[in-house]
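Re: Re: ligand-bound prediction request (bumping)

Still looking for help on this. To restate: I need the protein modeled with pyridoxal-5'-phosphate bound, output as structure tokens. Inputs repeated here so nobody has to scroll up.
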Amino acid sequence: MKAFLEESQKYLIGNYARFPVSFVKGEGVYLYDTEGKRYIDMLAGIAVNTLGHSDPQLAEALCRQASTLIHTSNLFHIQPQIEVAKILVENSCLDKVFFCNSGAEANETAIKLVRKYFYDKGQPEKFEIITFTGGFHGRTIGSLTATAQPKYHEGFKPLLQGIRYAEFNNTNSLKKAITENTAAVMFEFIQGEGGVNPINQDFLNEIKKIADEKGLLIVVDEVQTGIGRTGKLFAYQHYSICPDIVTLAKGLGGGVPVGAVLAKEEIAKSFTPGTHGSTFGGNYLAMTASKVVLSRVLQKGFLESVSRRGKYLMEKLEKIGLKPRGKGLMVGVPLPPEQNATEIAKKALENGLIVGTAGGNTLRFVPPLIITQKQIDEAVEILTEVV
Ligand SMILES: Cc1ncc(COP(=O)(O)O)c(C=O)c1O
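Reply:
Sorry for the wait, this slipped through. Here it is.
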């Protein structure tokens, strides 16, 4: 047994079912393990490494920032935080930004913000948030409750009060879940962990209509779909909708932990001094990473190339008899019951290809957004052998 495996078991809490591999180096879309073996990475740290591994511009900016200033706290103004917020606001339909460190923390923040907004409006009875089956919003108790998948709840009850579930893409189910206490609906445009399940346009239209009629807030979890993953900076930009609150994490830091919540002005103003906070949120190092990531993703042609590469990947997968779904470089392949996604991911790994899995026996492809056509060919070639 490799030495690190024994020590890993001895010292780490065993909450992850890890593959028996550890990487020591990354370069672009490639990773190298302790034995020097090279892998093509179609997972990108689960939709995180936007610019691939060891991007020279990102590495250089982080090194420079680390040797200047890493952290001061939000008791003071942090200039790169203002710069990143400005970029996010100027490229979205939202007005204000709060920074934190992860997707779960961003969603936790969104839940608090919804409650505080209605409290401030004199409607404290409006605290219920409706979320959808197959969704995934994180592992902290609020975001876990928002995750309408019983398998994640086992052993952790009682959950948070005030979250109700409806079936994804089912308008009747949504209507039934609404009560006089409903404050918001919260969903992903493409459910990532749930199996790369896109929202139906008709269902989205109904959500908008119902939200308008009943004064509900629309909270969109773009932790996985955000920052160029689907070929637009935000997935909501594919649809004619402006959400009230958007949560981000994963790709925003390109590998450095960053989370964010974007909100419309009227809602954001409910977070007055002392109502919410995060020690590390938006510190110098994290914001330096986000600045580099955003500047690159917003470069002319970058997002178009994500869309093109995504289409190319889907076509290649179709050619080998698979049925991909998704948008941009967020692609899922549901497999028939006789094929097991986890087994295929394991075999792929042995053959030098890293792919993810998701709910519903789905293979998941969320590579670095800088992947080339040739590299897609290389990945699909290995997959073809494996499948
Ligand atoms: C849509 C979505 N929301 C929230 C989360 C939780 O993010 P984190 O693991 O950074 O807490 C994830 C993670 O997979 C996610 O895909």
